[in-house]
Amino acid sequence: MDFQFSDEARMAIDGAKRFAVEKLGPGAAERDEKAEVEVKLLKELGELGYLGMTVPEEHGGSALGAVAYAGSVVEVAKVDAGVAVAMSVQNSLVNDAIEHFGTEAQKGEFLPKLASGGWIGCFSLTEANAGSDPASMRTTAVKDGDGYLLNGTKNFTTNGAIADAVIVFTRCDLGGKPANSAFLLKKGTPGFSIGKHENKMGIRSSSTTEMVFTNCRLPKEALLGEEGKGLKIALTTLDGGRIGIAAQAIGIAEAALDESVRYSKERVQFGKPIAELEGIQFMLADMATEVEVAKTMLFRVAWMKESGAKRYTKEAAMLKLFASEMSHRVCHKAIQVHGGYGFMKEYKVERLYRDQRITEIYEGTSEIQRFVIARGILG
Asked: Are residues 267 and 274 in contact, defined by beta-carbon separation less than 8 angstroms?
C-alpha cells in the first residue's frame, strides 16, 4: 500500500488550491448572493487542464487520473462548491460517458473541446416524475427516417444554461419493449431549448435548469452507445460521478472545519478563546476525524477507478453516502461553534451549510446509496 500522491497528482492538487484561493475566492460570496455563474472561470480551469483530467491525451485531455481529479475537486469545493460541481459534472459525467461509450467520431468532435474548456457539458437525466427512478422517464426518442425525434422536458440539469454539449437520456421502443437510449447533441440544435432556471438554496454559483425538447430531430450519429442501453450508460457513469460529489462534500466539510478552528481561536468568552473550552475542542476533534476518514475513502475509491477496477459501484455508493452525511454533521457543528454569527451571511459557514445539503440528494439520494450498498452486499 502506498499513500503518497504521485508528483503529477500533487502538483495538480496544489495548482487547484492556488486557483481556488486566488481566482475563485475573491468573488465567491458575491456569486452566491447574486446566483451568478462565471463561465470565464470555468474556461480558465479548462485551459489549465482541470476539465479533462481523466480524458486521455490522444483525445485532448490532461490524463492526470481520478486521484488527482478527486483531490482537485476537494480544493475547489473548499472555496466555491458551485464551481466544484460544474467541474465534477464535466469530468465525471460528460467526459467519462463519451470516453467510455462514444464512437471515435464523437470522441474526436467533443472531447478535445470539453477537456480544454472550449465547451461546457451537461448530463440531463432527471425529470419531474423520474428522479430516484430514472427508468420512469417520459422524454421520448422516436425513430424518424434515418434519425430520431426527441420530445420531453428534463429537470435539475447542472450546467444546463451554459452547456455547449448535452447528454440526454430518453425512453425508446426496442422491438415492442420500452427501453432507454442516450444521445449527444450540441447547443443550437433545432427543437432544443433551455426552460426554467432554478433559484436554489445552495451551490448558487452553478447553473441548474430545465432542458426542453420539442420535435428535436437528431441524426443517427447522435446516439451515444447502443440503442436501448441508455439506463446502463447512466448508472455506470454515475459510479464515477459519485466520486466527484463526495469530493465536493469533503471540500465543503474541510472548509467548515478550517473556519471553525480559526474562529475558535479568535472568539473570546469567559475571558479566554473558546478553543480552550473542552466542549469546543471535542466538536473540532469529531469534525477533523470525520473529514479524515472521508478523505481516505475518497482516494481509495478514486484509486479503484484509476486502476481500472471492473466494478466499484458499492464502494462509490458507500463513499458518496458517508462523505455527504459526514459533511452535514461537520457543517452543523461549524454553525454551532460560531454560535449566532454562524447564522449570519457574512460568515462563510452559513454558505457552506447551504451548499452541503444538496450533496445528500443529487447523483443519488442517501436512500438510493443505501439501496445500492445493500444490493452489493446481498448479491
From this structure: yes
Question: What value does the mean pLDDT of the chain take?
Answer: 97
| Residue 133 and residue 89 share a domain | no
| CA–CA distance, 167 with 183 (Å, rounded to integer) | 6
Name which of 210, 168, 167, 164 is nearest 187 in CA terms.
164
Told to judge if 259 belongs to the known catalytic residues of this protein, a careful annotator would answer no
Q: Which domain holds residue 49?
A: 7-120
CA–CA dist 194, 94 (Å, integer): 18
> In the prediction, which pLDDT does 294 show?
98
**What's the domain count of the chain?**
3
Catalytic residue of the set 198, 259, 290, 363: 363
242 within some domain: yes
262 with 337, same domain? Answer: yes
Q: Is residue 2 part of a domain?
A: no
Q: Cα–Cα distance between 17 and 76 in angstroms, integer?
A: 7
Rounded (10°) CA dihedral 11, 16, 22, 28: -170
User: Domain for residue 353, yes or no?
Assistant: yes
Please state the separation of Cα 58 from the chain's center in Å.
24
Q: Which residues of 316-349 are buried (b: 16+ CB within 10 A; e: fewer)?
A: bbbbbbbbbbbbbebbebbbebbeeebeeeebbb
Residues in the chain with pLDDT < 50? none
Residue 331 has a pLDDT of: 98
Report CA Rg, the chain. 21
Domain of residue 89, CATH code: 1.10.540.10
Question: What is the C-alpha separation between 256 and 349, in angstroms, rounded?
Answer: 6
| pLDDT at residue 311 in the model | 86
Both 259 and 336 in one domain: the answer is yes
What is the C-alpha separation between 61 and 279, in angstroms, rounded?
48
The cell numbers describing 109, all together, are 468532435
310 domain residue, yes or no: yes
Residues 89 and 153 in one domain: no
Q: Is 190 exposed, middle or buried, given 0-12, 13-18 or 19+ CB atoms closer than 10 A?
A: exposed
- Coil, helix or strand for 164? coil
